[in-house]
Amino acid sequence: MSVSSRPPDAVKRVDRLELIGGHPALDFANTAGNHESDHRSEWLTSYAEVTGWARRAGLLDDAGERALDRAAERLTEEAERARREIVDLREAVYRLYAALAQRQAPHTDDLAALHAARVRALVAAEPVWMDGYALQWSDEGTDLLRPVHPVAAAALDLLDSGDLARLKQCGNHPCGWLFIDRSRNRSRRWCSSRDCGNLTRVRRFRKRQREPR
DSSP H helical segments within the chain, as ranges? Predict the structure, then answer.
C-alpha cells in the first residue's frame, strides 16, 4: 500500500495505515486504532513512523521524510519529545472532532491546543504563490514538528467548511475513526465497509444465531 519510491527495506509500519478520513486532520486523528477504548493501538510509536505517516498522507515528500529521519537519528531525545508532542496534539484533534461528530461542543482546552499548534505552524511557514496563495514549510530537517504543520494549519478550516455537517464517527465501537461522509444520501456508517462493516455484520449474525427460535 506504500506510495513511496523508497526501497522495500525502508518501508515503515505506518505504510499500511488506511487514509479514510477525507481530510488531513481526520487522517491524523485516525493514527490510533480502537480510539474509544482503554486499549487503543498506537501507530505513531516512533518519530520515523510520524514522518512515514506524513509522507503517506502527502504532507511530506520522500526527500523531506529522509531529511527529518536523519535529523531524528542525530537528535534522539529531541525527536522523542517532538513525537510525544505530536501525539498529544493528535489526541486534542481527535477529542475535538469526535465531540463534533457526536454533535457536541468541543472542549476549550482542545480548541486552545489546536489554535496554538496552528499559530506555531503559521510562524514556521513561508507564503508562496502557486497558482494561488499557499503555505510552504522547509524540508531541511531542522524543525521536528514539520510533519504536522500542514495538519495544524488546515485543521481549524474544517470547522468553517460545509464538510463539518458530514463529519461522522465509525459505528463499530470502539473503533472511533472519524471521516467525512461523502456518500450521496449520507448513509455511510463505518470507516471501512470491508473491515468494521464486516465485523459489525458478523457480530449481528452471530447474535441472531444465539437467540432462541
Answer: 24-29, 47-56, 62-74, 76-101, 108-124, 149-155, 198-210
Residues 7, 25: Cα–Cα separation, whole Å:
28
What pLDDT is stored for residue 205 in this prediction?
A: 41
Strand 41-42 with 133-136, pairing:
unpaired
User: Distance (Å, rounded) from C-alpha 209 to C-alpha 206?
Assistant: 5
Q: Which three-class secondary structure string do you get for 118-134? A: HHHHHHHCEEEECCCEE
Nearest Cα neighbor of 125 from 155, 142, 146, 144 is 146
**Domain map of the chain by residue range?**
8-210
What does CATH list as the number for 8-210?
Answer: 1.10.3300.10
What is the pTM assigned to this prediction? Answer: 0.86
Mean of all residue pLDDT scores within the chain:
87
